[in-house]
Amino acid sequence: MTDRQGYDVAVIGYGPTGVTAANLLGASGLSVVVIERDTSIYSRARAISTDEEVLRIWQQAGLAERLKADMLADKAVDFVDADGESFISASPQPRGHGHPPQLFIYQPALEQTLRDGVTRYPNVEVLLEHECLRVQQDAGGVELLLARLGEDTLTRVRASYVIAADGGSSPVRGQLGIGFDGRTYEDRWVVIDTEVRSEWPAHDRLRFHCDPSRPAVDCPTPLGHHRWEFPVLPGEDEQELVTDAAVWRLLGRQGITERQVKILRAVVYRHHVRFASRWRAGRIFLAGDAAHVMPPWIGQGMAAGVRDAGNLCWKLAGVVSGRLPESVLDSYETERQPHVRGMTRRAVAVGRIITERRPLLTTIRNAVFRGVRSIGPLSGGLQKSAWIPDVHYAQGFLADGRTRARGRKIPQPWVRDGAGARARLDDVLGAGWVVVHHGPAPDTSAWTRAGATVVEILSPGSRARDGAVVDDGDVLADWLRRHRASALVLRPDRVVYAAAAPGESLSSPPTGLRATSSSADRQPVRR
User: Do 294 and 425 fall into the same domain?
Assistant: First the structure.
């Protein structure tokens, strides 16, 4: 038995959620230990897409541009009938976060870039080939008992807090006795990953083949890869279905031969809809698949876990640094769970469109959606409502009151900073609390005493100066007008904590928010 020094946060699991948390906590200056049982990155590409808000979270860790270099952006989505004719054609529209609205990914490459990012932080220690056997907590922290795989050695680690991002079968969730309620769908799907040898028509479009005889998903992925998914039909042997002969039969239905692709792997999956009955147990937090799983139809399973990390990590940094009261951690599940449930409902609804097997209903479906598509405004509204719900926290770590802006994430335009240089808004605002205002500033003295920065939003054509950003596209001023506000208090995740209309006073800082001379969450992100 060996003992390791105490850490601020232990992260169990080093998939997309855990590695995002390691980057965000590392950038905040906290001491972090990551515990992962596998020796290397999981080689199978599971997630295939992400979105602009998730890129904005990775931007906080200084990795967005490097990650985008390995992604495919601005690709259309088609729902096609049994004859291959489109009845829904969608191009996800930007929602103002400063990155392409939808991006296709190759997950092993993405995880490697995120892990490379963690190496920037000497305050983050990664323990691969270690399994967490037990977690025990008391009033002062959590003790973790670790086993080094393949060796007869045990290690005790102590941390102030734990993020359990250890997957849908989460051993930590099991140890805590937390339920995982929901359903498992009877349908099984064979997922086929390939390497592209020669391109074919529509190779770069995501297509949902809504054929009642056998639905299919046909998806481009970057770095020379492509994926197909097919349901296992009644009477089929799933073990036979993943053999090369069966895979080529399935791909042949799509006109794909060995000239176009090389088969990398084929695996059978089940789809689940499940939620942990609670996401916090004292000092331990569930995140990602350990807290929730959803069907893959809108590509938001991995993204939901990244959003969990983005919501939780700045709060942990604030609590550990002494800037925030410990009670703020209660808002993690309050804020995140409704958004995850909303995304899950949309994923299930899209899945029903794709997988409908009754011919009469598919005929009606195709006709209805073609009719909607012919009505431009209605089609655009349907696309927006059917995709990813915007961040809007009705409850959580927010000021009292019901202003329109409260609980929403502000857009991120390109702006000019005090020196006149062009940059994305979040990079100019930095990592802490910020008061932004357009026009005369309200009294911000209480907020500056609490450590917040004050930034004025200047109109297009204004001269750059310190303490202000020039929004040449007038995006921020327009957003403020639509939400009837002239000043906002922004949390570190750029969600509006409080808002004030012209002539009104801002809410007071939350109890316990205070400036410290060495606030971890005010350290700059390392680029």
Answer: no
Residue 384 is predicted with a pLDDT of 53
Residues 346 and 476 in one domain: no
Instruction: Please count the other Cβ atoms lying within 10 Å of the Cβ belonging to residue 177.
Output: 8
Q: Which residues contact 219 (CB under 8 A, 6 or more apart)?
A: 48, 49, 104, 206, 207, 226, 227, 228, 229
Nearest to 249 by CA among 206, 201, 214: 214
Band of residue 123 on the pLDDT scale cut at 50, 70, 90 = very high
User: What are the E-state strand segments in 37-140?
Assistant: 49-51, 72-73, 77-80, 86-90, 102-104, 124-128, 130-138
Question: What pTM did the predictor assign?
Answer: 0.93
Q: How many residues does the chain have?
A: 527
Cα angle: 437, vertex 443, 444; to 5 degrees = 70
Average pLDDT score over residue span 494-512:
94
> Mean pLDDT over residues 238-261, rounded?
94
Pick from 34, 248, 49, 246: which is nearest to 144 by CA? 34
Q: Are strands 206-209 and 422-424 parallel, antiparallel or unpaired?
A: unpaired
Structure token digits, residue 479: 């957003």
Please identify, among 350, 370, 388, the residue that sits at the C-terminal boundary of a domain.
Answer: 350
pLDDT mean over 414-443: 95
Residue 345 within any structural domain of the chain? yes
Q: Is residue 136 part of a domain?
A: yes
Quote the number of domains for the chain.
Answer: 2
Let me know if residue 7 belongs to a domain: yes
Give the pLDDT confidence of 94-104 residue by residue, as tens digits: 889 999 999 99
Q: 344 with 425, same domain?
A: no
Question: Which structure tokens are listed for 54?
Answer: 């998730």
Domain harbouring 453, CATH code: 3.40.30.10
Asked whether the predicted pLDDT for residue 284 surpasses 70, the reply is yes
Give the rounded distance of the alpha carbon of 87 from its chain centre.
29
The per-residue DSSP string of 232-289 comes to: PPTT--HHHHTSHHHHHHHHHTTT--TTTEEEEEEEEEEEEEEEES-SEETTEEE-GG
User: pLDDT per residue over 350-370, tens digit each?
Assistant: 899 999 999 999 999 999 988
Distance of CA 260 to the CA centre of its chain: 32
Counting Cβ atoms within 10 Å, is residue 190 exposed (0-12), middle (13-18) or buried (19+)?
Answer: buried
pLDDT tens for each residue of 292-330: 999 988 889 999 999 999 999 999 999 999 999 999 999
Range of the domain at 171: 2-71+99-181+275-350
CA angle, 274 as apex, 384 and 329 as ends, to 5°? Answer: 85
Same domain for 315 and 455, yes or no, is no
pLDDT value at 130 more than 90: yes
Please report, for the domain that includes residue 160, its CATH number: 3.50.50.60
**Across the strands, what pairs with 78?**
89, 207
Q: In the chain, what percentage of residues exceed pLDDT 70?
A: 95
